[in-house]
Specification:
By secondary structure, the chain is α+β, with helices and mostly antiparallel strands. The protein has two domains: about 250 residues, Glutamine Phosphoribosylpyrophosphate, subunit 1, domain 1; about 170 residues, Rossmann fold, CATH 3.40.50.2020. Helices cover about 30% and strands about 25% of the residues. The strands form six sheets. Strands 3-2-4-1-10-9-11 form a seven-stranded antiparallel sheet. The chain has a six-stranded antiparallel sheet with strand order 5-6-7-8-12-13, covered by helices on one side. α5 crosses α6 and α9 crosses α10. It is globular and about 70 Å long. The chain binds iron/sulfur cluster. Iron/sulfur cluster binds next to α8 and α17.
Length: about 475
Amino acid sequence: MAKLKEACGVVGTILGSECEKAEEAAYLSYLALNALQHRGQESAGIIAFDKLNNASLIRDMGLVSQIFTEDGLSLLEGHLSLGHARYSTTGRSEICNAQPITINSKNFKTIALAHNGNLINAQSLRQDLINKNKTIVSNSDSELLVHILKDQLEEINIDNQNEILQTLKSALDLAKGAFSLTIALGGDYLIGVRDRHGIRPLVLGKLLDGKGYILASETCALDIVGAEFVREISEGEIILIDQKLQIRSIFLDQIEPKFCLFELIYFARPDSIIKNIEINAYREELGKQLALTKPVPANADIVIGVPDSGTPAAIGFAQAAGLSFANGLIKNRYIGRTFIQPTQAIRQLGIKLKLNPLPSVIKNKIVIVIDDSIVRGNTPNKLVKLLKEAGAKEVHLRISSPPILWGCFYGIAMKDHELIARRLNGQIELIKNEIGADSLAYLDLETVLKVTGQNIQNFCTACFDGHYPAGVSDEEKVLAL
Ligand code: SF4
């Protein structure tokens, strides 16, 4: 179900000196951003740099395909570019918060940055910068990072790459929380960074004829530009790529891997591979485990998934339960998450605008509906009603992850007070009653972690168990006083 504001998507592309097409870096970032559109649909931007460090930038509200035209892209000349697709977590959904963020620099003319994640010490960083008389123009936490970087990079020798890496490390050691970054130091260097927990993803790809490198949030963005997967940027790693395509890295202090488990369950695109895990296969296996470990309703006729994110788990569930999988819900793919619902009458149509049941599949059937998660609970409630109106005899809801009991401070917009499972103290019977399903079951956290096949200590599970690996935000601490 479409219910969460997702993390942002970031890209960085650098082409070597033999590349003749000046605009190609921006084109590649554009294609990669299209593949990452699921991570952010509020605003997008691409900046390009030429060898003289001249920058050209297009940033606007809307989808990648709405913002960039052929003519626009042809203006983004240069061998190095950054791209960003945004969903707001800190900072409102406004043009002033669109990224990449830029700042003038004595050494590089312009420093640009694209951020996926959320800083938990944004308030104190902001106050420190204000105390130093810095002018902060946006209300996003990402702008704070460019001020901190600029401050520390102004005094260095820009040809000394070790000094640059050391300086980036000392600047970024100040930031706490989740940050996967792509940074351009003018047209000189492309930088990729993951926070010390590696909460959000970031991968490195090599363009096929060896003409350059691309950094992107997910491997699906490498596929679209024909880049070969090289590796994931490690937790706490700062990687620097120069114009000769040489790569160096350095690491932040206090590394403790804690990748966001929810990326695997819901956020990442099913055709991406993260931590060697094929996302689509992982979700199918969650569905199988759901059928094997939780009661399967007696006499069920069909299994349907909530498209698109619930579909792989529904296929796995149906296989393991020996039931038929059916396409019972059709998704309207052309309604964005920022869809304007101008009148009350149209608002009341609610979920029907996005999902429409197929009565011929559902009528007089006992239906098992599989979804990946329940956040606020309003969508499954409407969905159950919709399926019953379409003639379902019974609707049994199965969820391929545990109840979400805690908000996220690391780049996903879900807050404690919005969560149905938290409001109802995690009592499944109460949640079931409020949603109106005939039965409800969730997959256990233990199983969701086990299916990764990896060290279970290496994941953030805070929204399920309240253990926040990077701490909680300044703002939350203030509210708790
Ligand atoms: S709290 Fe949940 S959504 Fe947020 S980073 Fe951790 S696992 Fe991901």
